[in-house]
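Problem: given the chain below (280 residues), write out its structure.
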Amino acid sequence: DKFQYFLLDDNLKETAKGQFSFAGYTKEISIWNFLASDKGDLYIISEEFDKSYKYPVVYEYLAASSSANIIPVIIADPDLRVLNYITSVDKAGELIVAGYSQQKKAFNVNDIPAVGSWYFNSSKPQEIKTFKFDSPVPALTARNIVYNGDTFFLVGEQYSAEKEPSTGSALQRLSMEDNYTYQHNDIVVTGFTNDGTRKFDVTVSRKWPAHNTDNEFMIASGVINNKLAVIFNDQYGKYIEDKYHRYDKVPVAVTIHNDGLMDAPVHFEKELDVKVSSYT
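Solution.
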């Protein structure tokens, strides 16, 4: 019914406090994520369902106006639905939600193809921009938003997690842990201008299966030398001629400029001076 907040400075001294609510709103709010800007604007991210499709809902409190707003983030195109997304606050303190869209059709739990990307900025709550891919990309999942001057990057990967069927008696299955098969495939980077116009899509080739644990195949991303850097484990044999270690892992960094130009991958086999290595 009510949210209470406290704002603290770098020394953890209280600078402001207050409370807010959404008058007349009686539904329970499930908090999936929470972000705050340096201005004290607060963003609670929840989710709602439209039949089999889910979409984010932003519960926003603006410090300057003391206004509390509820913003359903729904793609206007009747043929498109939200596939997945990620959230971030930009330097201006505005909430950015960006991700991938799917074609509206019968519900499918398998590797649903992404047909494009989409973008939402809390400063323009009625506007959700959508962009189509040249061809659908199966199982594309949003991983990160990275800001770099006049450009921000949406970083995603083709990712799937499939639970393996349980075997044995019912009693045995109760005591067994679930097993999963994971697939980490191509990395996809979309560049946007700060006003949400798409500039480019870049694909980085990769393919890794995993069983039960897959943390070592998650990608890292950030800004290095004024370029987006994407860091991941890749197959040793793609970079070094060695038939005995072809399928070992080697850490690789790919850097992408703000205009979409991608530099040649840099691998770290020489620096590590060992055949079997990985990054985390």
